[in-house]
TrEMBL record:
Gene3D superfamilies named among the record's database cross-references: 3.40.50.740, Dimethylsulfoxide Reductase, domain 2 (3.40.228.10)
Every Molybdopterin oxidoreductase domain range: 2-200
Protein species of origin: Vibrio harveyi
Name recorded for this polypeptide: Putative nitrate reductase
Keywords linked to the UniProt accession: Oxidoreductase
């Protein structure tokens, strides 16, 4: 959000990037991390795939700090400060919300953020990681543990292999074998008196 909100006024460093500049910002950060040798090679080798191809992609001149200045509308001084802070800090959490998640190229934006954390090893440990803030309380947690009516835990479909795998992981004697009702279907089923209990 390029507006200087009250939250932005309290920030140590506010980066009011141009509309849709998220991917370029985080690809520029990744390029900086690679060039400054601030990547976690051991983590990359152990837990990631395709890093060489990603390195080649972000080596593009458009991700140089000087070129980013014009493309995303942030001064070279501010960009360099941001890149250095991220590189030098032992911890980093990147909070992002619907503006990233629901954008037309939201997957690219999410990937760019996640890639910076994976490359620097600032993930899966205390004080580190990309953190998607969803629009509803614990929406992501609900998805991960199977709280969606049309999916098993960890976004698995209701195919025989997934059912068997999730059931084995949970060591559960019983497990749902078909999708439940989504919100609108649920309301219609309530109207037809097909739902015996509804916890709101």
């Amino acid at each position: 959000d390029p507006r200087e909100t009250v939250t932005a006024q309290q920030a140590d460093l506010h980066l009011p990037i141009k509309n849709d500049g998220d991917v370029s910002l985080f690809n520029g950060l990744l390029k900086f991390l690679i060039e400054q040798q601030c990547i976690d090679s051991e983590y990359i080798h152990s837990y990631t795939d395709g890093f060489d191809a990603l390195t080649e992609e972000v080596s593009d001149l458009r991700y140089d700090v000087t070129n980013l200045t014009s493309s995303i509308g942030i001064s070279e001084e501010k960009l360099t400060t941001f890149f250095q802070w991220f590189a030098q800090s032992s911890t980093a959490i990147t909070l992002f919300c619907q503006g990233v998640n629901q954008a037309e190229n939201g997957v690219d934006k999410g990937n760019a953020i996640i890639n910076a954390h994976l490359a620097s090893g600032k993930i899966a440990k205390s004080g580190c990681g990309p953190f998607s803030i969803t629009g509803q309380p614990n929406a992501m947690g609900g998805r991960e543990v199977g709280g969606l009516a049309n999916q098993l835990a960890v976004h698995r479909a209701f195919d025989a292999g997934s059912i068997k795998q999730v059931q084995a992981f949970w060591d559960s004697p019983e497990i749902a074998t078909q999708p439940g009702l989504k919100a609108v279907d649920l309301f219609e089923a309530v109207e037809r008196s097909e739902i015996k209990v509804l916890w709101i």
